[in-house]
Sequence to fold (139 residues):
Amino acid sequence: MLGLGHRLAAVIETELHEQTDIRAFQDAFSAANLREPAAGSLSLIAEDAVGVGLGFLHALPGTDGITGREIGYVALLAVTEAAEGMGAARQLLAAAEDWARQQGYAALSLDVFASNHRGRLFYEKNGFATEALRLVKKL
Fold:
């Protein structure tokens, strides 16, 4: 599942960062979260009927930026190209929502790059709404 970092990096378009830096960041972030998960985190792998990996999700405790309360945070969600449109991402996200409810969290949050149009649409269709936008200016 660590090999899906290229899919996550490929949808990031920014004037501030080079694709090689984005890919290195994504690979390191994925490896750190999956190899040494934070206490209380959730890691899931979606597989087909014969055990072929379709995608993964990693969620962990996060903090609401306004109230300071602990909420769930989806740090990583990716599916293989072959799994797109098969419902694997939706099932992974539903499992993360169940996990967050079981933890007593009032919310589940995530970050998605502005250039990831397909991801943004997927999250919006699954009930997520934009709360904040981070703007960057290259100097």
